[in-house]
Amino acid sequence: MVWAAEAKSAASMRGLDLLDHVDYRLVQTAEDREQVYNLRYRAYLREGAIRPSADERVVDQYDELPNTWIFGVYVGGELYSSIRINIATSEWRTSPSVEVFGDVLHPKLDRGMVFVDSTRFVADPDKARHCIALPYVTVRLGSMAGVYFDADYGLAMVRPEHHAFYHRVFLHETWGVPRIFPGLVKPVGLMASHLPTVRERVLARYPYLHSTAFERRMLFERPGQALFVRPPIPQRVIASAAG
User: Fold this and answer.
1) Does residue 80 belong to any structural domain of this protein?
2) Are strands 115-123 and 153-158 parallel, antiparallel or unpaired?
3) pLDDT of amino acid 105
4) CATH assignment of the domain containing 77
5) Is residue 116 part of a domain?
């Protein structure tokens, strides 16, 4: 237990140190997109999560949606990792986790819940070995999105061997047993955490997950934002919940 606490503290400090050298970039240009798609391919292939392909890229229909944000995480000007974030609402339901675990998530969307759906979390197979805090710094983007969009839950489709990381860092719980996501050969389960409930505990343990309103706005603000803003809760729903 002492070792675990020390490891957690060390990861926290490395995360704080690494943030001084990290540049989060919203992937927008064709060149940047190709870099990310190729990074996904190399990372998944190294893990045995996909089969080899001639074009050496991983891309799908969710990459071009209005409710999609794809980020590259750059260290010293070089692409180290990437993550894709979709915001799922009752009005805009298209996202990877909703497609695969619709039976679990649609009833919650019907009740007006907002999800941060983080997928395509990949790291450069060679660079990641020398940057132990990289996973924490990358998933920080999902944490910031949860605050910016006032989301109810953070979602993650996770292979069984990674469940412990998400449970430890984000206090995620299992919502769905592993299923196949199109294009992957290894099944992924659905994990989630209720963000308003766990946020303060997570931030206390991992202080580098803190962010400023300015940083969040610079990363996530875009025209047409009203598509993903939580709609007002009907008074009858409030009264029902109170009762």
Assistant:
1) yes
2) parallel
3) 97
4) 3.40.630.30
5) yes
| Beta-carbon count within 10 A of 231 CB | 11
For residue 8, give Cα distances in angstroms to 3, 133, 228, 231.
Answer: 9, 11, 34, 38
* Residues 179/141, Cβ–Cβ less than 8 Å: no
Q: In this structure, is residue 219 part of a structural domain?
A: no
Residue 243 lies in a domain: no
Q: What is the pLDDT of residue 4?
A: 36
Nearest alpha carbon to residue 67 among 84, 87, 82, 83 = 87
Q: pLDDT value at position 230?
A: 55
pLDDT along the chain (243 residues), means of 10: 36 58 92 96 91 92 94 93 96 94 96 95 88 87 94 94 86 93 91 94 89 94 65 39 36
Nearest-Å Rg of the Cα atoms of the chain is: 18
Dihedral pair phi/psi, residue 191, rounded to 5°: -125, 155
- The answer to whether the beta carbons of residues 105 and 191 sit under 8 Å apart is no
| Residue 88, strand partner residues | 115
Tokens 């729903």: give the residue: 237
Instruction: Note the pLDDT of residue 128.
Output: 82
Can you give the residue range of the structural domain that contains 77? 2-209
Q: What is the H or E stretch that residue 166 is in?
A: helix 163-170
What is the pLDDT at residue 228? 58
- The number of folded domains in the chain is 1
Query: Which parts of 101-152 fold into alpha helices (H)?
Result: 102-110, 134-148
Count other C-beta atoms under 10 Å from residue 237's C-beta: 12
Can you tell me whether residue 50 is helix, strand or coil?
A: coil
